[in-house]
Design a protein that fits this description.
Blueprint lengths: L1 E5 L4 H10 L4 E5 L7 H4 L6 E4 L6 H6 L1 H21 L4 E5 L24 H20 L3 E6 L1 E3 L8 H11 L3 E3 L5 E6 H13 L7 E4 L4 E3 H12 L5 E3 L11 E2 L4 H7 L7 H13 L1
Parallel strand pairs: 1-2, 1-3, 3-4, 4-5, 5-9, 6-8, 7-11, 8-12
Antiparallel strand pairs: 8-10
Helix pairs in contact: 1-7, 4-5, 6-8, 6-10, 8-10
Length: 282
């Protein structure tokens, strides 16, 4: 099968390309996804995995227009290409941030979608576009909503790599609010689910949460990072690191993914942090 991946040079994209390459022909779509010329050289694909996005929440608050252009506008450009090329399936990698503040926990796919950031709003727009192309043109789609993915190679702007890099530097460990609860999935587990979302027949038209089903407070993640690294540093709360409009709890109900894909996460948080630390420290 011939599969195409946008965002192939990003954190999750690199891991996904490696996973898909084991059994499929993989084409990496590189360039500005807002431009039709980025896609014109690619004549055919059975499945497209759409990962390219501006995915940093604080950045979306600083630049909501740019975030919208990439995440909503870029998705529209991709869908037009997919429609013209008769692509078999588009897997849209969305985000748990489309749900906004949790009205109940754990969050399943029926949870109301009320994003609390420009990033979440732009990804909700991308979802709506894919849903409209399914109903208007018969384009087969799958929406995957990751919660927090982490692992080797992730950019420092996210919690786990930021903490581990500070530990590696050994000078100080500055952190923001340690109370928010998040659901962390190791990248190998995440790409295994994404790969299945592109190929399993029962996923057709589905929206699927991607997460471990386990909630961990930020402070707990920091403590585990210190444990696996053996560092003597102690966290120092820095008010400048607090995020505006942050969500207090995002924990996944992943039963739908388990039922439709037969998927389950395999790597516990402490083990995933250990692997990530060892990759960074090597």
């Amino acid at each position: 099968m011939r599969v195409a991946v946008t965002g192939a040079t990003g954190f999750v994209g690199r891991h996904l390309v490696r996973e898909l390459s084991r059994s499929h022909e993989v084409v990496e779509i590189r360039g500005d996804i807002r431009s039709a010329s980025t896609f014109e050289a690619h004549a055919r694909a059975d499945v497209v995995f759409h990962l390219a996005a501006q995915s940093n929440v604080p950045q979306s608050q600083r630049d909501p227009v740019g975030t919208w252009d990439v995440n909503a506008g870029g998705t529209l450009t991709l869908l037009e290409w997919a429609r013209a090329r008769d692509v078999g399936r588009v897997v849209l990698v969305s985000t748990a941030h489309v749900y906004g503040k949790a009205q109940y926990s754990p969050i399943d796919e029926r949870h109301p979608r009320h994003p609390g950031s420009p990033y979440g709003a732009s990804k909700l727009a991308a979802e709506a576009l894919l849903e409209s192309y399914q109903s208007s043109y018969g384009l087969e789609g799958v929406i995957v909503r990751p919660f927090n993915i982490y692992g080797p190679g992730q950019a420092r702007g996210f919690l786990v790599p930021d903490v581990l890099h500070q530990i590696r530097e050994g000078r100080e460990l500055r952190v923001g609010d340690t109370r928010p609860v998040r659901d962390f999935t190791y990248v190998d587990d995440a790409v295994a689910m994404l790969a299945q979302a592109g190929t399993v027949a029962t996923a057709k038209g589905a929206s699927l949460n991607l997460g471990s089903g386990q909630g961990h407070a930020v402070g707990e993640v920091i403590d585990l990072a210190l444990k696996v690294s053996g560092s003597p540093l102690r966290p120092q709360v820095d008010d400048s690191r607090f995020r505006a409009a942050d969500v207090s709890e995002l924990v996944v109900d992943n039963r739908r993914a388990k039922e439709l894909l037969g998927w389950a996460p395999r790597v516990p948080l402490e083990e995933g942090l250990r692997r990530t630390w060892e990759a960074l420290a090597s």
